[in-house]
Amino acid sequence: YLFQQISLVLIKLFSDLVLTASEKDTKLFNNAIAIRGGVDFKQIKKIKNIGKKYDVVYFGRFHSQKGLMDLLDIWQKIYKKRPSTSFLMAGTGPLEEEIITKAKKIKIFDRITFTGLLSGAKKYKILKRCRLFTSASRFDTGNMALDETLACGVPGIVYDLEHLNYPQGVIKVPVGNNNRMVRETISLLNNIIII
């Protein structure tokens, strides 16, 4: 926190322009512009749709601020109500072992495909094979993973965080309302029409 405060002062004093992912952060600086992350639409368009393989996907860092332990609890409830559901976790990070251990403990490990870190065309090819993106992140200033899944034609369900502004394609549920996340996910999975 202290280093962040020092950094903010130095940025204010010595920067000509600040680019930030969050509109809210522009208020910290006189010279800031909010931009969304870069989604490679050209590469996404080149990837053909070859059919859906996974029902629900999370991709991103395996980090504590991403709410992955909550997400596993949500997925367990989904699986109990809809046993045919398949899950995909794409990413890596400090919680990887913890995630695997918990998935085994709550008996959904066999329903989850772990791909590790994905990038480029391989990432988009796999995302296009998913039906729905979910995230239980409790802190986000801009969700690149959600931006990329939306660009691949995959809708999302996320917690209703202040900085996440999506006018369409995303259902936002109150933070921590896991039961609502489960209901919305199952409802979407039962009603998504695959073209």
N-to-C series of helices and strands: HEEHEHEHEHEHEEH
Query: What overall geometry do the principal axes of the alpha carbons give?
Result: globular
Give me the number of helical elements: 7
Helix content: 25-40%
Instruction: Report the mean per-residue pLDDT as an integer.
Output: 90
- Spatial strand sequence of the major β-sheet: 5-4-3-6-7-8
What is the distance, rounded to the nearest whole angstrom, between the alpha carbons of the first and last residues?
48 Å
Number of strands: 8
Which regions are unreliable across 5 or more consecutive residues at pLDDT < 50?
Answer: none
**Rg from C-alpha positions?**
18 Å
Strand content: 15-25%
Largest sheet: 6 strands, parallel
Global structural class: alpha/beta
What does this molecule look like?
Helix 3 (68-81) crosses helix 7. 37% of the residues lie in helices and 18% in strands. Strands 5-4-3-6-7-8 form a 6-stranded parallel β-sheet, with helices on both faces. A two-stranded parallel ribbon has the order 1-2. It contains 7 helices and 8 strands. With 195 residues, it is α/β, with parallel strands linked by helices.
